[in-house]
Amino acid sequence: METYVNSPEAPDSVRDASNQQILDAYRRRESEVAADLYAPWHMGEVFRHERRRRLAADMLHRTGVFPKPEDHCLEVGHGTLGWLADLIGWGVPSGHLHGIELDARSAEVARTRLPSADLRIGDATEMPWTEETFHLVIASTVFSSILDPRMRKMLAREITRVLAPGGALLCYDFAMNNPRNPNVRKLTRRELAELFPDLHGQVRSLTLAPPIARLIAPRCWWLATILEMIPFLRTHLLAVLIKRPTDP
């Protein structure tokens, strides 16, 4: 989960307050949420991850941007591991993986797990990489953690800058607000299009509402699969947006 940088649109005070809000939300979540709620062995989490990973791979393949071993890939806000493990499973060597994470604690955990990856601690609205570096950029539940629309625009511009022509943004995020969590704000299809006017692609809804998935998936996997087919029970969007190649 990421945030902002010095800009006429975002004074230092706004940037600092936004950064602190995100970090405070991390700390509250650590203290208030049960440790096993999102544990990788929980069948609700297994269900969510498998469905998300399968659809993402299919969308990337169908649009011709599935990463190759020689491609350099970036995850913005990777947390303790994020999609970096999926990229390794897709054949991208760890030496071609890059990441930037605001939370130093999470970043250090990720570094111990992937010591040969290029993982930075910092603000994703001012990334240290040059223009058009990455074939694939992943932003997973990143924009929903940014409450200020100005800051979302700044992050979107920076992602577009480091994305190579013909490369893709893989974005997974909340499509609806959670009334119990004021620290996140949904990302709509319309806003996604406004944030990335130079990218085009496809957007799909997915992810059975987590409370339902946690209840149903451990008991009846096929029922959870059927329930996820019902549009109003899906809580997230998955987008593959491609940066138009530059004219010769």
What does the model show?
This protein is an alpha/beta fold and 248 residues long. It has one domain: Vaccinia Virus protein VP39 (Rossmann fold, 3-Layer(aba) Sandwich), CATH 3.40.50.150. 38% of the residues lie in helices and 21% in strands. It has 8 helices and 7 strands, in the order H-H-E-H-E-H-E-E-H-E-H-E-H-H-E. The protein has a 7-stranded mixed beta sheet. It is globular and about 50 Å long. The termini are far apart. The N terminus is likely disordered.
List keywords for this structure.
248 residues; alpha/beta; Rossmann fold; 8 helices; disordered N terminus
Per CATH, the class reads: Alpha Beta
Low-confidence stretches: 1-8
Sheet with the most strands, sense and barrel status: 7 strands, mixed
Shape call: globular
Oligomer: single chain
> Overall mean pLDDT score?
89
CATH third-tier fold name: Rossmann fold
Count up the domains.
Answer: 1
Gap between N and C termini, in Å?
Answer: 36 Å
Number of strands: 7
Topology pattern, helix = H, strand = E = HHEHEHEEHEHEHHE
